[in-house]
Every structure is written in structure tokens, then in C-alpha cells.
Amino acid sequence: MSYYFAIVGTQDNPLFEHEFGTSKQGGDGVARFREEARHMNQFIVHSSLDIVDEVQWNGGQMYLKHIDRFHNNYIFCFITAGSVKFLLLHNPDTHTPPNASSRSSAATARTSAYGQSASTTYNPTAPAVEEAIKNFFVEVYDVWVKTIMNPFFKLDMKVTSPVFRGRVAAAARKHL
């Protein structure tokens, strides 16, 4: 599974971006987005901001859960108290598994419209998935608050700190 995490400021400007892969179930933590689709990640995340604007005032929660889907990409959102948006694009199946050659050609031919095989289904609203993503967002939010408390940090300023990037990556390894 591959992830693209973005922090979007109050003026809808990107403040931070990070790509990573899953570290659970034997994952190596490397994002495996297809090269022809990699440049679309920022566009997909940015296009989901319209949906965030619609639903952010409905319930009053910070974690908005699964808000959008584009082909095989699922977008989750967390809104901070200062209206900064954490967006996570999650692509559950980006490459054919290594043992795909052992499957029959009929099984390989049966794929859904989103590129997943018929035998594997992914549910972004499953409690385990939502809990892991929520825990990731909460941990990143804690690091975010500590970062913006710096007196040299200004509102809507890009985050370039390698310490911040390392802590986001550690949260991703821990929860995703």
C-alpha cells in the first residue's frame, strides 16, 4: 500500500508533502505509486478540498474520515483547530503482487474497474483501517502543534524541518 500525505494551509496552499509505503505486514515503507500516476497525487488531494469545505462544518469533528475516492485512491482528512488540513491519499493496490505469476490467467483477467483483483477487496471504512489512520493523524497533529509553537513559524509557512519529516515518517511506520 502506498500513501501520499499533505498538509494544506488556510489559503489552500501546500505546506508539507510526504510519500511513504506501508510498514505493516512485511512492507518496506517505500511508496509504490505508478510513475505515470505519481504526478497526479497532488492534484487528487487538492481536488478533494472542495468536499472538505462542504463537510467540515457539519459535525464539528476534527477527523473527517474517508471523504473522497478517485479510481483506486482513497482520501482521508483531519482538520486542525486552526483550519489547516491534513490529507492522506491511500492507494491500497498499486502493483501486482510478486506471486501473480502463480495465478491463473482467468483470475488475472477478472479485475474490478479500479484495478483490484476480484478475490481481494479493500474496505476503507473498516474499523481497523479507520483506527490506524486516525491514530496516524493524531500523532502527526501532536508533532504539528509542537512545530507551530516555534516563535519563528508563521501561519501558512512551508514546513521544511527534517525533524518534522522524520517524525511524520515514524508515525507512518508505527500506524500504517
Structure description:
This is Trafficking protein-like protein particle complex subunit 2. This protein is 34% helix and 21% strand. It contains 6 helices and 5 strands, in the order E-E-H-H-H-E-E-E-H-H-H. It has helices at 35-38, 41-47, 49-55, 105-109, 127-148, 162-175, and strands at 2-8, 14-21, 63-70, 73-79, 85-91. It has a 5-stranded antiparallel beta sheet with strand order 2-1-5-4-3, with helices on both faces. Strand 4 and strand 5 form a beta hairpin. Helix 5 runs antiparallel to helix 6. 24% of the residues are buried.
Portion of residues in beta strands equals 15-25%
Q: Main sheet: which strands, in order across? A: 2-1-5-4-3
State the share of residues found in helices, binned by percent: 25-40%
How would you classify the helix and strand content by structural class?
Answer: alpha+beta
- Main sheet summary: 5 strands, antiparallel
Supply Rg: 17 Å
CATH class reads: Alpha Beta
User: How many H/I helical runs?
Assistant: 6
Give descriptors for this structure.
176 residues; alpha+beta; Beta-Lactamase; 5-stranded antiparallel β-sheet; 5 strands; globular
Please specify the SSE layout and strand pairing.
Layout: E1 2-8, E2 14-21, H1 35-38, H2 41-47, H3 49-55, E3 63-70, E4 73-79, E5 85-91, H4 105-109, H5 127-148, H6 162-175
Antiparallel strand pairs: 1-2, 1-5, 3-4, 4-5
Helix pairs in contact: 5-6
GO biological process, one term: endoplasmic reticulum to Golgi vesicle-mediated transport
Protein name: Trafficking protein-like protein particle complex subunit 2
InterPro entries: Longin-like_dom_sf, Sedlin
